[in-house]
Write a structure and sequence with these properties.
Elements: E1 2-5, E2 8-11, H1 26-35, H2 42-56, H3 63-67, H4 74-80, H5 85-93
Antiparallel strand pairs: 1-2
Helix pairs in contact: 1-5, 2-5
């Protein structure tokens, strides 16, 4: 399905995950973050960059893996993305919903 995000028509799943990573840019991330009541800070960008790099390297993501990444610990990850952190962070990062998310 298509959704208007940051003034652009973007293909998303029913849950709002982008279906085409090439459509993602920082304005899309800011808009999705705002929908989730998050204002992206430089610390958020560090985590989002890590998540995108792992996706590009085809590494499966889980909260535990992110917590052990050295980029962010689990406590801070929950502080940055309070509601369903992995699901929210991957949605903002423009990548598909991780298999580990219910």
């Amino acid at each position: 399905m298509d959704k208007l995000i940051a003034g652009k028509t973007i293909s998303v799943t029913e849950e709002g995950f982008l279906t085409d990573f090439s459509q993602w840019d920082k304005s899309i991330a800011d808009a999705i973050a705002a929908e989730n009541n998050i204002t992206i800070t430089p610390r958020h960008w560090e985590v989002l960059d890590y998540i995108q790099n792992e996706y590009k390297n085809e590494v499966p993501l889980s909260i535990r893996k992110i917590g052990k990444s050295g980029v962010v610990d689990i406590k801070e990850f929950y502080q940055l993305f309070p509601m369903a952190p992995l699901k929210t962070a991957t949605k903002i990062a423009g990548i598909p919903k991780p298999v580990s998310c219910i």
